[in-house]
What we know:
CATH topology of the domain at 90-245: Thiol Ester Dehydrase, Chain A
CATH superfamily of the domain at 90-245: Hotdog Thioesterase
Amino acid sequence: MAGQFTSTSGHEAIYACLLSLSAKMSQSTIIPDASFSDPQHLALRRLVRAIRRVVAHSVHMIADAETLNSLAEHAESLADAMQPNAGTRPFDKFYPPRYFLRDEPSLILPFSMIGGIYNPIAAPLRIEHDGDTVIVRVSLGDVYEGPHNCVHGGMVSALWDQILGYANVKKETGGPTAWLSIKYRAPTPLHTELRFEACVDRIEGRKIFTAGRCYAGDKLVTEAEALFIHYESVAQKGMWENRRESTRSHPPEG
C-alpha cells in the first residue's frame, strides 16, 4: 500500500488488520515446482523479452494506418496462438531466499509486475547484494513515463515496495506492507541508470522496518522507508530451509 498513515490509531488499525491477514497467509504451503524443463524456461524468457520489446515500441510509434492495422493483425494472431496454452502458472509464483545466496534474486518473484523476469510489463531490474544491502540497477524507458522525460511517481513507489521487499527476503523475513513512505528529492529521469540501495533497518517482533535510497548517477532522487508485517508458518520455514539446501532443478540462466 502506497502512502503514509498519519494517526496513531490509523497505524494500530492497519497493524491489527495485517496481523490477521498474515496469520491466514501463513497457513498456506508453498506448492512444489511443476515439471518445467530448462528449454521451456529459456523459451518462455525469450517470448517474454520479445513481448516486452513490443510494449516498448508501442508507446512511441508513427506509421500509416495500413502498417498499424497489419501490426495489429500480427499481434492479434499471436494472442490467439498463445490462448490455448494460457491459464496456469508453469511453476511457483514465489521462490525462497536461497536465490540470494545463488546470486539469482530475480527468481524470487518471477512473475512480479515490477521486476519479474517472466512478466513482460516488468522493469528490467538487475539485482545484486552487498552483505545485507540489496542493490538494484535499472534504466526505465518511455513505458514508465510520468512527467516529461521522468519516471512516473507511482512507478517509483511500486519499485520501492518491491525493492524493500527484496531487502526483507535477503534477511529471510517478509510479509505484507503496512505503510510505505517515499520522499521525492528530485525528478527520477528516464533512460538513465538508477541505483536503488535498500536494507532492513530493524525488526521489532513481527514488525520489519526497511529503508533505502535511490540515485541517478551521484544525485539522490528518492528515499523510502516502510513497515512490513512478518509472517511465516512452521511448514513454510521448513520448506524454505529444505529448498535452500536442495540441489534440485531450478530455472536456468538466460
